[in-house]
Amino acid sequence: MGHIVVIGAGQAGSSCVVKLRNSGFDGKITLIGSEPQPPYQRPPLSKAYLMGDMALERLYLRPEAFYAEQDIDLQLGATVDAIDVSAQQITVDGVSLTYDELVLTTGSIPHRLPASIGGALDGVHVVRGLADVDAMAPRFVAGGRVLIVGGGYIGLEAASVAAKLGLEVTLVEMAPRILQRVAAPETSDFFRNLHQGHGVNLREGVGLERLTGEGAVSGAVLTDGSELEVDFVIVGVGIAPATALAEAAGIALDNGIAVDAFGRTSAPHVWAAGDCTSFPYAGGRIRLESVPNAIEQAEVVAENLMGANKEYHAKPWFWSDQYDVKLQIAGLNTGYDRVVTRGAAPGPVSFWYYRGKTLLAVDAANDPRGYMIGKRLIESGKSPSPDVIANPETDMKALLSA
Ligand code: FAD
Questions:
Q1: Which atom of ligand 1 sits closest to the CA of residue 78?
Q2: Residue 52 structural domain
Q3: Nearest CA to ligand 1 atom 46
Q4: Do the beta carbons of residue 144 and residue 311 sit within 8 Å?
Q5: Residues 152-175 pLDDT 10s
Q6: Is residue 181 pLDDT above 70, yes or no?
Q7: CATH number for the domain including 78?
């Protein structure tokens, strides 16, 4: 049945090869990853694993022996340098390999601070891979002073771990409020209160001017002119899809590797899934940076490699853990014009996003029931009126059958 090569041994790559074998594919499979570890889950890197509450093996999606048992040729610590789409060949660390079908699951690359403002100083970290987290973990010692640049979910999760471990945490967010890119002011307010309640020095509307230090970072100058002393810095200022390999091969990009609903790229016999892709959604294209998307899109690609001819319909959901709060998000809030709140902290609380009368998304904090009901409403296209949601007397479960 030929040779399927998957480039990128992360969440999407491993989901694709597992699905191929589970669907009865008995041809040759090669999974190539530049990191030394077998495929692992990234979410705990800024949560339980960073906290020291999770053993390394528990991060692995499957035990390392699984791949050999499934006759999957797992090549770790190996980087694909080039793809020749007309010859159906790739080059791995200089060695050529021929494929019948190729799947790109190259993930994302974190933005770094430019060296001109101190980004290359020792003690300046990003949070993307195990190597990043293992390098910064020894610095998480009570009394240490950390500056976190960026108030998105990654930065806030790192702040939560640091504060819990007794570090002195300053977080700067250049935008007027944390989570501005992804959430409503209500959700930002909720997390601001949470972090301030744990002693984090949260500075919104303030950017980083530059980091200072001789070899290693020792201080920071902020855009409001203030200066602070720091022992290390965590940069959480977003990611870019890893598209360089595809681009050099002449594969079409559009805010990521552009794939159709089936997961096909512009090149014959080349597919893609996960963080590195943008795909058709609600009449436009989107790129999602989430585990559920990586798994589900990669599984659809695997099924299509087996001839299923199946379209991928994303049902976005996401989560974040900070202190004792579990946030669960269903739907996409893009274009919202109204937000309705149910409940109040410290109890379960949820924020419901509407555009006109249409329910778009829900952010549910310690409210698994609100999340579950919101997700089912959104996925079935039901939009209870905002007043009904806001009313504490509403029997939420009854809305599902309404
Ligand atoms: P990745 O898992 O990044 O895998 C891509 C792999 O491809 C990498 O191992 C890379 O080294 C390899 N690669 C790239 N180029 C090459 C090449 N040329 N040759 C060989 N190998 C190559 N999502 C959630 O849903 N919930 C969360 O709570 C959450 N928390 C997160 C916390 C952190 C700290 C991070 C970093 C991410 C988090 N995410 C979360 C996002 C989620 O982990 C990603 O969306 C998901 O891992 C994407 O899977 P992927 O397979 O597309 O990419």
A1: 20
A2: 3-109+239-305
A3: 291
A4: no
A5: 999 999 999 999 999 999 999 999
A6: yes
A7: 3.50.50.60
